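Q: I'm building a small set of examples for a reading group on sequence design. Run inverse folding on the following structure and report the sequence directly after it, with nothing in between.
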Protein backbone atom coordinates (compact mmCIF):
# COMPACT_ATOMS: atom_id res chain seq x y z
CA UNK A 1 0.00 0.00 0.00
CA UNK A 2 1.38 3.41 -0.89
CA UNK A 3 2.11 6.29 1.48
CA UNK A 4 -1.08 8.28 1.95
CA UNK A 5 -3.28 5.23 1.59
CA UNK A 6 -4.28 5.36 5.25
CA UNK A 7 -5.38 8.96 4.86
CA UNK A 8 -7.40 8.04 1.81
CA UNK A 9 -9.02 5.17 3.65
CA UNK A 10 -9.79 7.42 6.63
CA UNK A 11 -12.02 9.49 4.36
CA UNK A 12 -14.70 6.85 4.59
CA UNK A 13 -15.82 5.80 8.02
CA UNK A 14 -18.98 3.85 8.41
CA UNK A 15 -20.28 2.26 11.58
CA UNK A 16 -19.95 -1.18 10.10
CA UNK A 17 -16.18 -0.82 9.89
CA UNK A 18 -15.69 -1.32 13.60
CA UNK A 19 -17.68 -1.33 16.78
CA UNK A 20 -14.82 0.59 18.40
CA UNK A 21 -15.24 3.49 16.02
CA UNK A 22 -18.97 3.61 16.72
CA UNK A 23 -18.28 3.77 20.46
CA UNK A 24 -15.72 6.53 20.00
CA UNK A 25 -17.98 8.74 17.97
CA UNK A 26 -21.16 10.06 19.47
CA UNK A 27 -22.42 11.02 16.03
CA UNK A 28 -22.01 7.53 14.69
CA UNK A 29 -23.31 5.98 17.92
CA UNK A 30 -26.46 8.05 17.57
CA UNK A 31 -26.83 6.88 14.00
CA UNK A 32 -26.75 3.31 15.29
CA UNK A 33 -29.60 4.18 17.64
CA UNK A 34 -31.58 5.52 14.71
CA UNK A 35 -31.20 2.24 12.92
CA UNK A 36 -32.36 0.31 15.95
CA UNK A 37 -35.33 2.59 16.35
CA UNK A 38 -36.24 1.81 12.78
CA UNK A 39 -36.05 -1.90 13.61
CA UNK A 40 -33.12 -2.43 11.32
CA UNK A 41 -30.71 -4.70 13.12
CA UNK A 42 -27.24 -3.40 12.53
CA UNK A 43 -24.74 -6.19 12.27
CA UNK A 44 -21.10 -5.36 12.66
CA UNK A 45 -19.82 -7.01 9.57
CA UNK A 46 -16.41 -8.54 9.48
CA UNK A 47 -14.20 -7.20 6.77
CA UNK A 48 -13.66 -9.86 4.17
CA UNK A 49 -10.07 -9.45 3.15
CA UNK A 50 -9.80 -9.47 -0.57
CA UNK A 51 -7.70 -12.28 -1.89
CA UNK A 52 -5.80 -10.28 -4.47
CA UNK A 53 -4.39 -13.28 -6.30
CA UNK A 54 -7.88 -14.76 -6.64
CA UNK A 55 -9.16 -11.43 -7.98
CA UNK A 56 -6.28 -11.26 -10.47
CA UNK A 57 -7.15 -14.73 -11.75
CA UNK A 58 -10.84 -13.82 -12.02
CA UNK A 59 -9.91 -10.69 -14.01
CA UNK A 60 -7.42 -12.61 -16.20
CA UNK A 61 -10.08 -15.17 -17.15
CA UNK A 62 -12.63 -12.41 -17.86
CA UNK A 63 -10.24 -10.45 -20.11
CA UNK A 64 -9.22 -13.58 -22.00
CA UNK A 65 -12.81 -14.76 -22.48
CA UNK A 66 -13.99 -11.34 -23.67
CA UNK A 67 -10.88 -10.84 -25.84
CA UNK A 68 -9.67 -7.72 -23.99
CA UNK A 69 -5.99 -6.93 -23.70
CA UNK A 70 -4.25 -8.09 -20.55
CA UNK A 71 -2.48 -4.79 -19.76
CA UNK A 72 -0.30 -3.95 -16.78
CA UNK A 73 -2.32 -0.76 -16.13
CA UNK A 74 -5.57 -2.70 -15.79
CA UNK A 75 -4.04 -4.98 -13.18
CA UNK A 76 -2.54 -1.98 -11.38
CA UNK A 77 -6.06 -0.55 -11.03
CA UNK A 78 -7.27 -3.88 -9.65
CA UNK A 79 -4.45 -3.96 -7.08
CA UNK A 80 -5.18 -0.41 -5.89
CA UNK A 81 -8.88 -1.15 -5.66
CA UNK A 82 -8.16 -4.26 -3.59
CA UNK A 83 -6.24 -2.11 -1.09
CA UNK A 84 -9.30 -0.04 -0.29
CA UNK A 85 -11.82 -0.86 2.39
CA UNK A 86 -14.28 1.82 1.37
CA UNK A 87 -16.55 3.17 -1.32
CA UNK A 88 -14.86 5.33 -3.93
CA UNK A 89 -15.59 7.23 -7.12
CA UNK A 90 -13.53 6.93 -10.29
CA UNK A 91 -12.06 10.39 -9.72
CA UNK A 92 -11.09 9.56 -6.13
CA UNK A 93 -9.31 6.42 -7.32
CA UNK A 94 -7.55 8.40 -10.05
CA UNK A 95 -6.26 10.93 -7.50
CA UNK A 96 -5.28 8.12 -5.10
CA UNK A 97 -3.32 6.28 -7.80
CA UNK A 98 -1.50 9.44 -8.80
CA UNK A 99 -0.69 10.13 -5.14
CA UNK A 100 0.78 6.63 -5.05
CA UNK A 101 2.95 7.48 -8.06
CA UNK A 102 1.09 5.30 -10.57
CA UNK A 103 1.34 6.74 -14.05
CA UNK A 104 -2.15 6.16 -15.34
CA UNK A 105 -4.67 8.15 -17.34
CA UNK A 106 -8.13 9.05 -16.11
CA UNK A 107 -9.59 7.26 -19.16
CA UNK A 108 -7.83 4.01 -18.22
CA UNK A 109 -9.13 4.25 -14.64
CA UNK A 110 -12.69 4.75 -15.90
CA UNK A 111 -12.58 1.98 -18.50
CA UNK A 112 -10.95 -0.49 -16.09
CA UNK A 113 -13.58 0.19 -13.41
CA UNK A 114 -16.19 -0.61 -16.03
CA UNK A 115 -14.47 -3.92 -16.84
CA UNK A 116 -14.08 -4.81 -13.15
CA UNK A 117 -17.79 -4.17 -12.64
CA UNK A 118 -18.76 -6.33 -15.60
CA UNK A 119 -16.53 -9.08 -14.25
CA UNK A 120 -18.34 -8.87 -10.86
CA UNK A 121 -15.21 -7.89 -8.93
CA UNK A 122 -16.73 -4.46 -8.22
CA UNK A 123 -20.26 -3.39 -7.40
CA UNK A 124 -21.35 -0.05 -8.82
CA UNK A 125 -23.80 2.14 -6.88
CA UNK A 126 -25.68 5.27 -7.80
CA UNK A 127 -26.26 6.95 -4.45
CA UNK A 128 -26.71 10.68 -4.91
CA UNK A 129 -25.44 13.07 -7.53
CA UNK A 130 -23.96 12.19 -10.88
CA UNK A 131 -20.89 10.18 -9.88
CA UNK A 132 -21.08 6.41 -9.61
CA UNK A 133 -19.64 4.90 -6.45
CA UNK A 134 -17.81 1.56 -6.42
CA UNK A 135 -16.82 -1.01 -3.83
CA UNK A 136 -15.28 -4.47 -3.91
CA UNK A 137 -17.99 -7.13 -4.17
CA UNK A 138 -16.09 -9.30 -1.68
CA UNK A 139 -15.70 -6.44 0.81
CA UNK A 140 -18.92 -6.91 2.75
CA UNK A 141 -21.24 -9.35 1.04
CA UNK A 142 -25.00 -8.79 1.26
CA UNK A 143 -25.02 -5.34 2.80
CA UNK A 144 -27.33 -2.45 2.02
CA UNK A 145 -27.07 1.31 2.47
CA UNK A 146 -28.90 3.91 4.55
CA UNK A 147 -28.04 7.41 3.33
CA UNK A 148 -28.88 10.85 4.71
CA UNK A 149 -30.31 12.85 1.84
CA UNK A 150 -29.04 16.10 3.37
CA UNK A 151 -25.48 15.46 4.58
CA UNK A 152 -24.62 12.27 2.71
CA UNK A 153 -23.84 10.33 5.90
CA UNK A 154 -24.05 6.66 5.06
CA UNK A 155 -24.53 3.54 7.12
CA UNK A 156 -23.95 0.06 5.79
CA UNK A 157 -26.19 -2.54 7.35
CA UNK A 158 -27.03 -6.18 6.98
CA UNK A 159 -30.60 -7.37 7.50
CA UNK A 160 -31.33 -11.08 7.35
CA UNK A 161 -35.05 -10.43 6.73
CA UNK A 162 -34.13 -8.78 3.41
CA UNK A 163 -32.16 -11.85 2.34
CA UNK A 164 -35.14 -14.07 3.13
CA UNK A 165 -37.38 -11.66 1.21
CA UNK A 166 -35.17 -11.64 -1.90
CA UNK A 167 -35.18 -15.44 -1.90
CA UNK A 168 -38.94 -15.75 -1.51
CA UNK A 169 -39.67 -13.13 -4.20
CA UNK A 170 -37.34 -14.81 -6.68
CA UNK A 171 -38.81 -18.22 -5.86
CA UNK A 172 -42.35 -16.90 -6.36
CA UNK A 173 -41.46 -16.00 -9.95
CA UNK A 174 -39.51 -19.18 -10.66
CA UNK A 175 -36.05 -17.70 -10.24
CA UNK A 176 -33.08 -18.08 -7.93
CA UNK A 177 -31.94 -14.87 -6.24
CA UNK A 178 -28.25 -14.03 -6.57
CA UNK A 179 -28.06 -10.61 -4.92
CA UNK A 180 -30.08 -7.47 -4.37
CA UNK A 181 -29.40 -3.79 -3.99
CA UNK A 182 -31.30 -1.57 -1.56
CA UNK A 183 -30.67 2.08 -0.81
CA UNK A 184 -32.76 3.78 1.85
CA UNK A 185 -32.71 7.56 1.53
CA UNK A 186 -33.42 9.20 4.86
CA UNK A 187 -32.75 12.29 6.98
CA UNK A 188 -30.67 12.48 10.15
CA UNK A 189 -32.91 13.06 13.14
CA UNK A 190 -30.03 14.81 14.89
CA UNK A 191 -30.05 18.04 12.88
CA UNK A 192 -26.99 19.42 14.66
CA UNK A 193 -24.74 16.56 13.59
CA UNK A 194 -26.32 16.53 10.16
CA UNK A 195 -25.48 20.21 9.68
CA UNK A 196 -21.91 19.69 10.92
CA UNK A 197 -21.40 16.82 8.54
CA UNK A 198 -22.84 18.83 5.67
CA UNK A 199 -20.27 21.52 6.33
CA UNK A 200 -17.44 19.07 6.79
CA UNK A 201 -17.00 19.79 10.50
CA UNK A 202 -17.35 16.20 11.64
CA UNK A 203 -14.34 14.01 10.95
CA UNK A 204 -16.44 10.86 11.19
CA UNK A 205 -18.58 11.83 8.23
CA UNK A 206 -18.68 9.38 5.41
CA UNK A 207 -17.59 11.21 2.30
CA UNK A 208 -19.51 9.05 -0.12
ZN1 LIG B 1 -21.31 -0.47 0.85
ZN1 LIG C 1 -27.60 14.02 7.72
Amino acid sequence: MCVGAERFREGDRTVSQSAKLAAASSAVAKSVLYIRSANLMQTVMKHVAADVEQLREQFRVFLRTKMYRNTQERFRVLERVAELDRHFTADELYVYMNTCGDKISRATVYSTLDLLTRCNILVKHRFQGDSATYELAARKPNHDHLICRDCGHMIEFQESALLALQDSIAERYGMRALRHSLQIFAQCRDQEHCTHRRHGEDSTTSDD
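The beta strands are 122-125, 133-136, 144-148, 154-157, 183-186.
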